[in-house]
Amino acid sequence: MKEQLYTIPVNDAFNGEHECPLCSLKSELERNAIEFTLGPSYMEDDNRAVTDSLGFCEKHIQTLYQQKNRLGLALILSTHMAKVTRDLDQLSREPAQAGKGLLKKKTDSPMSAYISSLEQSCFVCNRIETVFQRYIETIFHMYKKDPSFPRKLRDSKGFCTYHYALLFEQAPDYLAKDQLKTFLSDLNSSYFTNMKRMQEDLSWFINKFDYRYQNEPWKNAKDALPRAVLKSHSAVTPDLNESSGQE
User: Fold this and answer.
1) Which of 156, 236, 164 shows the shortest CA–CA distance to 197?
2) Distance of alpha carbon 19 from alpha carbon 191, whole angstroms
3) Buried/exposed code over 55-90 (b: 16+ C-beta within 10 A; e: otherwise)
4) How far is CA 96 from CA 39, 85, 93, 111, 145, in A?
5) Do residues 135 and 25 make contact, with C-beta atoms less than 8 angstroms apart?
6) Phi and psi dihedrals of 159, rounded to 5?
7) In b/e form, how buried is each residue of 117-128, taking b as 16+ CB within 10 angstroms?
8) According to the model, what pLDDT value does residue 110 have?
9) 53-87 per-position pLDDT tens digit
10) Predicted structure pTM score
């Protein structure tokens, strides 16, 4: 199968030694989105209009703050805050609704709805999710069209729990009945086999804190803890290069 724009990063992720290829893809998208946000794009009016409207989630505003471009972030926040205060000033002029009593259903006020929309929107998240969904579609396309891809999936180190469930749930939208059955079999085999491997590594990691195992080799368990965190919580991306064991 000739590699296209989206197949290249998907192949790279599945060819690598990742505990979850989808986490690897998403981490790269996040890095790119952060660089784009604080790159020359923040001076462009059309991009600034989107950041003004969407703002950033708690995770990504902290990530942006940790970057070197403090001036860029200040400019972005300046116009975003100006828009929010203009919007809230307008909403504050609307009369508040009186209470309707305990037995009547409460409806969100326009101000409450506006604040809720701010809490649920993020410029960086939007950029990530748009391309990430294309990667998901590419995975199913390659499973159907690339004869070598099913083996890559089976031979991978599996997936984090979240992305396993994501592939499981979306598979019926992309695969016909026979292909769906085979895909789910491969997916389940990869996920459960590697979760067992991960639990064995974590168990040995725990044993190494027992004096009776002090002189035993670490085997594959020295970085078991950050890998287990990734397996069980895909939103967290610990540094897998850092040792989590005893020295």
Assistant:
1) 156
2) 10
3) bbbeebbebbeeeebeebbebbbeebeeebeeeeee
4) 41, 18, 9, 9, 58
5) yes
6) -145, 160
7) ebeeebbbbebb
8) 87
9) 999 999 999 999 999 999 999 999 999 999 999 99
10) 0.82
Distance CA(144)–CA(150), nearest Å, equals 9
Q: Take residue 20 and report the two structure tokens written for it.
A: 């979850």
State both tokens at 152. 């890559």
Nearest to 156 by CA among 180, 190, 200: 190
* Calpha distance 35→69 (Å, rounded): 10
Rg (CA), the chain: 23
Q: Decide if pLDDT at 99 tops 60.
A: no
Give the Cα separation of 233 and 19 in Å (integer).
Answer: 12
CA distance 23 to 17: 12
Residue-level pLDDT at 109: 83
Show the tokens assigned to 97.
């609704």
CB-CB contact of 221 with 205 (8 Å): yes
Mean pLDDT along residues 23-47: 92
Neighbours of 25 (CB within 10 A): 25
CA distance 205 to 224: 7
CA distance 35 to 31: 6
CB contact at 8 A, 161 and 231 = yes
